[in-house]
Amino acid sequence: MKLSMLAMVTFLWSSLTFAIQPYFYGDKVARGDATSVMRAVEAKLTRSGFTVVGGYSPQGLANYGVIVVTDPDLSKLIAQFGGATIVGAGIRVGVRNDGTVSYINPEYWQRAYLRKHFNGGAGGTVNIIQGRLQRALGAGKPFGGEVDKRDLPDYQYMFGMESFESDKNLVGESLSFADMVKTIQANLARGVGHTSKVYEVVMADKKIAVFGVAMNDPKTGEGWWVKEVHDEHIAALPYEIYVVGNKAYHLFGRYRIALAWPDAGMGTFMRIVDVPQAIQDTMKAVAGTRH
User: Fold this and answer.
1) CA end-to-end span of the chain, whole Å?
2) In 3D, which of 233, 41, 55 has the Cα closest to residue 142?
């Protein structure tokens, strides 16, 4: 009996040790409209050494705002490893007009995006960044759904679903990196596919770039499907399109949405079954593939 109890306690402790969630709550700020709450949070981030690169209030989610910042240490890691790691260059912070603040858990997202590099030495830097973010915004409780951190480098919501390296991620190709970046910049400026730019990070010397894309279509944009999965996870936004070399990619929805909402049940995903394709079509339009 004692051995059985010990085994159970060991199992439960092991599960708790490896469980990780995608977001943290920060300290509340004064309530107001989304814009004023965002300004208060931006000031905290700037004082702590983060650089604000963009922000927006998503269409259809008027009570919410999102701020995106970069961190010099994270940017160095991404420049070092290159490739698709650029998708994780932006640190996302969500706010609500009641003063609620939430932000991504860097360890969770970078385990998924840096993958083998996280345990190859990058994890220590990510933990330092996470500590700085917590000091800036407050180290509240984690939330969003538990995932075993060992599963994140090869994360799939279910067996057979897309992963970080899915072939479905590709949405466009151009003659060169510069041409691909210019096409995306121009299309976002024109509002192609009911989109607009939230932020951009371009590392031209490494031929990698990422853009945060606001999807504003009232029928297919984030304003309706985020409510279906859970608007508390506002720091999941915005969706990204990223460039590696002369090709443009996004993270296919059955991966990216599941990674951001791991606590959502299958019934929830069935209600938004058409969303991954709609997002892919939107990103193809941004990349100049669909007209």
Assistant:
1) 68
2) 233
* Residue 47 Cα to chain centre, angstroms: 23
pLDDT of residue 95: 98
Ranges of residues in the chain whose predicted pLDDT is under 70: 1-16, 290-291
Partners of 13 in the beta sheet?
A: none
Decide: pTM greater than 0.85: yes
Query: How many domains is the chain partitioned into structurally?
Result: 1
Query: Do 48 and 159 form a contact (C-beta atoms < 8 A)?
Result: no
In this prediction, residue 10 carries a pLDDT of 43
pLDDT score recorded for residue 174: 97
CA nearest to 171, candidates 48, 45, 285? 285
Say how far apart CA 197 and CA 86 lie, in whole Å: 17
Q: Where are the alpha helices (DSSP H) in 118-176?
A: 123-137
Q: Is the peptide bond before 238 cis (omega within 30 degrees of 0)?
A: yes
Confirm whether 179 is domain-assigned: yes
Paired strand residues for 57: none
Taking the CB of residue 228, how many other CB atoms lie within 10 A of it? 14
Instruction: Write the CATH number for 87.
Output: 3.30.310.70
Which pairing describes strands 147-148 and 170-173: parallel, antiparallel, or unpaired? Answer: unpaired
Q: Which domain, by its residues, includes 207?
A: 21-147+155-286
